[in-house]
Amino acid sequence: MGATRQSVAVAVLMSAAVTLAGCGGGNTGGGGTSTVSGSAVELNSGGDCAGRDVIVNRDGAGVVLEGECGTVTIEANGVSATVATSNAVVVRGQDTNVVGGQTGTLTISGRSNSSTIDVVESIELQGNAVTVVGKQAERISVTGSGNSLNVDDSGAMTVSGNDNFVRAVSLDSLEVTGSNNSVDWDSGVTAPAIDTGSENRLTPPGA
Q1: Residue 62 region by backbone torsions, left for phi larger than 0, else alpha for psi between -120 and 50, else beta
Q2: In terms of pLDDT, which residue wins out, 164 or 26?
């Protein structure tokens, strides 16, 4: 019996030691970095992206992001951001303004946001009451409502939301499935390939 009790006590002590070691190992090396998830870093005061993904998550922040940026994600409200060059810009808060020169994909959700980025490969306008101004966009998708979009040169455009105003100088293709949208363009395609919505106001070239 004594030997059995001694064996049980040893086993309990070993188990406790393993548990304590596991608890202590989870905090190794995490205290001094600004990494949020994966390779993304917080730059709530701006700085050089240095090719990294960046997160801005402080309300009211004013940031200037320099250098080549990866994906810039803005998760706060009332942010003013200047992003010279990036792979993508994602805006999830509200009352945020983004200015930039060039990005791959611009995705805006939330409400009352605005963006002026000159050259964009793809615009995903998912929010409401958003204003977007640009010079060139290869693909545009408007799924939100009550938005204003003004671009000089647009490739393929799809408008599936409602109550949006869209203005383009040149438009290669157009599909409208939402309702009560206004789409006005000067050159390019003469009519939408799809127009299944209702009460849309389309002003093609020469109209």
Answers
A1: beta
A2: 164
